[in-house]
Amino acid sequence: MNLKLCFFVCSISIIIISCKREKEIQATKEIKVNLIKQSDQGPFPSMTSAFNMVDTIPYSLKGIPELDTISVQSTRRTSEKRLKKLLEQGVISSSVFDELNTKWYAISGIKGNKQIIILDENQNFDFSDDKKYIIDKKIRETLRNNEELKDSFPSLILPYKRYLNGRIVNLDLRTKILPHKNFFYFAKANPSPKELTYLDLLLVSSRREHWLGDFQLDSFNYKTAISDHWNRFQIIFQEKDKPFYSRRNQDKEYEEFKKGDTVQLGAHFIKIDSVGADLDKLYLQKLDITELPNGYKEGQQLRDYTFTDIEGNSQTMSTLLKNKDYLLIDFWGTWCVPCLQLTPDLKRIHQEYPHIAILGVDFDFEKEPGVKYIKEKELDWTHVFIERVRKDTLLRKKLVGKLRVDNYPTFMLIDKDLKIVYRGIGKKALNAIEELIVVNKALEEQ
After folding, report:
1. Is residue 248 helix, strand or coil?
2. How far apart are CA 357 and CA 317, in angstroms?
3. Lower CB count within 10 Å: N or C terminus of the chain?
4. How far apart are the first and last CA of the chain?
């Protein structure tokens, strides 16, 4: 190859590569959304977490009052487990670990017919200079479903440090400290006297903080809301002039997204890139695509997922649909009372409509309770167990995460082409699905 020809070929190659890169740049467009922190009710439910029992009271703690019964408890805003992992990986130093690994101590106790609550707000390990909250001790047994009573408790603003996007950030936590007997308690066979006292005097932290922002896609205006739960950002979207759907909404599926997710907004598709270090910005990317690679909404097509049922057999969506007209997927759990209440309806549908296959997706902490329930109720259709884990990265790789299932029970009706014909929540959705089945069957028989 002579020099001129070599130069010509190289020039053409550079042009082709440049065009390809230009096309890649045009395929995505960064959208920066300014966020403003809010502390009202907002579109998210309040985030509630229990204080931990302190096994050994530190010698440095002072000002502990004399009470009839007492429990020393603690809470933290940054996950100690996550910090230890960052320390082991060499991401943070031991001094940064110590700076971030702080906690608030609290006293919860009984004096006569009153409950005494003291939080070491300034974290100086001395309760004598902190405000003492005195309430009727009966409140701790009735607070759970009484929102008006919860609202009567004062909101506290607690400054704390957090590790975000490679640096330490100073933030404020707005929270209410509430008494809550036996909150998040899973019965133990032989709890110790200290554990029983802790459960009886248990405190919880309840917060409602979230962040709001709005942005534009071409000529369309949208808004977003973000909730921060233990370093996991939960993000929802809506048209700017419409209200956000609530998690408990029975008419419209509530959709919650996370970092890395692809979201469809009208005819547009965006990818959630990241949240700013100071929680003041959300970075999105506009994608140059016309459909999602794997659907989860009505009208979209599912991937032919492969899974292992509770009997140990490998299954796919398409094998379940063999010789069937539809596949009804039921996302449920033994902890979900509304799910269990619909068991008779599902059994009846299974008996009355043999052309419908059913897949039960049991989302539970342990497999055994679901297997026991399935056998006792003689639910003779295909079932799969999905472990209910706290780690968001693991959950997103499983069926409930890929299909954006946040409410239980969620029902999906899938046709032979793996297209989602209907998706909804609760009994209303199951009734609508049955109506669809009946109408479509009648039309086929005409």
Report:
1. coil
2. 10
3. C
4. 73
Same domain, 312 and 433: yes
**Residue 9 covered by a domain:** no
Phi, psi at residue 421, to the nearest 5°? -80, -35
The CA distance from 12 to 14, in Å, is 5
Q: For residue 397, what pLDDT is reported?
A: 52
CB atoms inside a 10 Å sphere around CB 109: 21
139: DSSP letter: G
Contact (Cβ atoms closer than 8 angstroms) between residue 220 and residue 268: yes
CA distances from 321 to 154, 298, 346, 443 (A): 55, 18, 17, 20
Calpha distance 278→324 (Å, rounded): 52
Residue 293 included in any domain: no
CB contact at 8 A, 268 and 222: no
Q: Are strands 210-217 and 28-34 parallel, antiparallel or unpaired?
A: unpaired
Q: Is 216 helix (H, G, I), strand (E, B) or coil?
A: strand
Pairing type for strands 114-119 and 232-239 reads unpaired
| Distance (Å, whole) CA 361 – CA 414 | 14
Residues 110-142 have pLDDT tens digits of 999 999 999 999 999 999 999 999 999 988 888
Q: Is there a single domain that holds both residue 191 and residue 338? A: no
What is the pTM for the complete model shown? Answer: 0.65
Asked which of 184, 207, 230 is the last residue of a domain, the reply is: 207
Q: What is the CATH number of the domain that holds 362?
A: 3.40.30.10
| Cα–Cα distance measured from residue 222 to residue 232, given in angstroms and rounded to the nearest whole number | 22
Number of domains, the chain:
3
Structural domain of residue 193, as residue ranges?
Answer: 47-207
Residue 110 domain flag: yes
106, part of any domain? yes
